[in-house]
Amino acid sequence: MVTSLVAEIEVDAPIAEVYQQWTQVESFPEYLGAVWSVLPIDRVRSRWAVNLDGFTEEFYADIVEQTPERRIEWQSTDGVFHRGLVELAESGDSTRVTLRMEWEPEGMLESFGASVGVDPRQAEQDLQRFKQFMEARRSSVT
């Protein structure tokens, strides 16, 4: 059974800067809680290590769609099924970020966590960390 979630947040940064940050997959561990590392292989493929319920899972993911300053979609190509999509929309001087994730829980703990709503809270926390990351970086530059 595939589990999916959606979370949104508004980031006080221009869409070009927010998009550029989402293309820097190696920085995902700084704000995505379950992600331990992402190693870019080339412009499309990356190697991910994630912590799922105390277990490390590794897989390759490919970018399957990328529209500059609008969206980036990726999907695992091996191991655990995972698909992610980040959509961006201008909101005045800010950027609306929507994160959509799908994955197939492998064990009882993952399935239970998804059923009680742990996963959506994690996505909201991840986006809050992303917002803080972007806004702190902007304030240190200006």
TrEMBL record:
InterPro entries cross-referenced by the UniProt entry: COQ10_START, ORF3, START-like_dom_sf
Residues covered by the Coenzyme Q-binding protein COQ10 START domain: 11-129
Protein name per its UniProtKB record: SRPBCC family protein
Top-rank taxon, per record: Bacteria
Gene3D superfamilies noted in UniProt: 3.30.530.20
